[in-house]
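Milestone M4 deliverable, item 7.
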Amino acid sequence: MTPGIEPGILIAVLYISAGIAFTGAVQGIAMIATIDPRSRPFWLYTALSVIVVFLQIEVAQYHTAASLAAAVTAQKWMNAAALVFLPLLFAFIAFYTGQFRIKPWLTTLSIACAGLIAANFLMPFGIRFDHASSIPIDFPWGERLQILRGSASGVSSIVYFLFFGVLLWGLFQAATLIRRGDLLTGAFIGTSLLAVIIGAMATRLEDLGVFRFIYTGGFSFLVFVIFMEIMVSSDLHKASRQIKQLAFNDPLTGLPNRSALLSLLHDALEQARPVKNRVAVLIINMNHFDIINDPLGHDIGDALLLQVSQRLQQQVRESDSVARLGGDEFAVVANELSFTYGAGMLAEKIQHAMHVSFDVGGNTLNIATRIGIAVFPDDGDSSTSLLMDADLAVRHAKLKGHDQVEFFRPEMQTAIRERQRLGNDMRTALAERQFELYYQPQISASNGKVDCVEALIRWNHPRDGLVSPQKFIPIAEETQMIISIGAWVIEEACRNLGLWRRDGIRGVRVAINLSVQQLLQPDLHELVATMLSRHGLKGDDLEFEITESAIMEDQDRSIVQLKRLRALGTKISIDDFGTGYSSLSYLKLLPIDALKIDRSFVTDIAENSSDAMICSIAITLARSLGLISVAEGVETETQAAMLRNMGYDLLQGYLHAKPLPATAAENYIRERNGTSLGVAIG
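Output delivered:
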């Protein structure tokens, strides 16, 4: 350094500004480390900050250079930094403002700047001067620094054209942000770019000797970094709020999540203890949400969940809280209850609201709910224990079917553990052939012959013995094992019927029950077609029984599926008719062949005139629609006689036969229908 150069305040400010720019780079890295989705602009901002650090240091080196040659070298590195800065700035503003179609322009600008950088180092004085001299400048406070002055080069005009073009485009994008309502970001980008424009113009005048100041552009870059750092800090604050929002709120519905619910419940319990109020936790589970979400798409499923959340909030009081626990489960914290039955009344209100159809994306959707309830202080003394108890209650409600409300009871823990054990054992039952089909005959009321046999699954558990379907089928439905088990039932029924056909039994169908999940299984008709072909059967050898409630889960898709099965030639019957909550008007839309009156109406038909009336109405309805009528649960001759007099076509029940293993069922059919081995009838 020459003795005439005396660095002081201005050089100190340049080094301080380099430190500020470095802080901006660190903050850019911090922004990248967050989960904010706009990480690409902050990579670019970090690179911009690093370039400004280098630029400010080179400006300081330039002003304190020991010779003209050293000053020119520093000047060349300053020019190179500015040319690297240019495409980075362009890309930063483009990505930050959502201008993603600028790749060709960015590529062109980058190539142009790379060429200019090469020219800068090849030219004797860099791209700013054709000829330059080193001139020391004295300041009133005693500081003396060096500056280059000379005639501007032609290349520098190109650089200034590019530079101002990018800056003016950036100002336009800032104005666009402001028009869109993002005042803060637009103002920061616009102000910082304006500072750089003013600094660049002042530097141009300074180079020509018109304006006596030390590299105004260096200080304009300091202003740029400060304003952009404020903008990034603002975004860091917004990101932290978003992270907090994600930590305690469900992103889809905006409701509190499980963590927030525990906190809300804890506060509710603390308020309830001194005044001895009750607090109830209700967990609401949507029945078979997967059969809506999977076939119709997650967009429809999400829209349905959003409507459910809104409907739930409409049913509770202002003092209550609604949360989403995840998936298709919601929770309600009901505060300030004087009596336990208040929670039950709220559960009924919620279920009534959920029975109203949802219109989602042009689809009319019906859902059923199961609700589990735990009440403070009876069932638990802490937020965690109450939530666990309510969860046990809703899981118990799932086992009992649709639209169930269950209050927590201590014995539920034992029942749930048993359910889990059976669920685990069921996974190996198929592989180890522990399941078996029994067949219960349906007898013709007119001639006493077997017209159809209903296939009923039994589980020969290696430790528990014969497990009732009423016990394991709900578990299979909850765990979705019902799809695999149902496929096995179809294949096994077809296999046995194929053997009976080869042994000469004709004119007897096998009826197979379908669950909701099976009915809405997209490839069900393909599975049935494959089994029929494999075992040499025709479509009308099979009959499928579906309950009213299964059809009402999704009427439109159910009708489509039933039509596909009918196209194969199979028969369709409505099982447990009369117990569903739907209107009878849908019957004319269904491609069905038979109605099975529920056993609950047959049991007391001789003693209860209302049951007898229902049975009579059902047969009249079946006749008017041209359907076969079947009565199940027939256990006495009196019942059979009354049903025959009413005109029922088929009778099923213990009066004629209990469910029988395949061999016993075959022998029963031969005996009843008068069929000898190898002799075909029908």
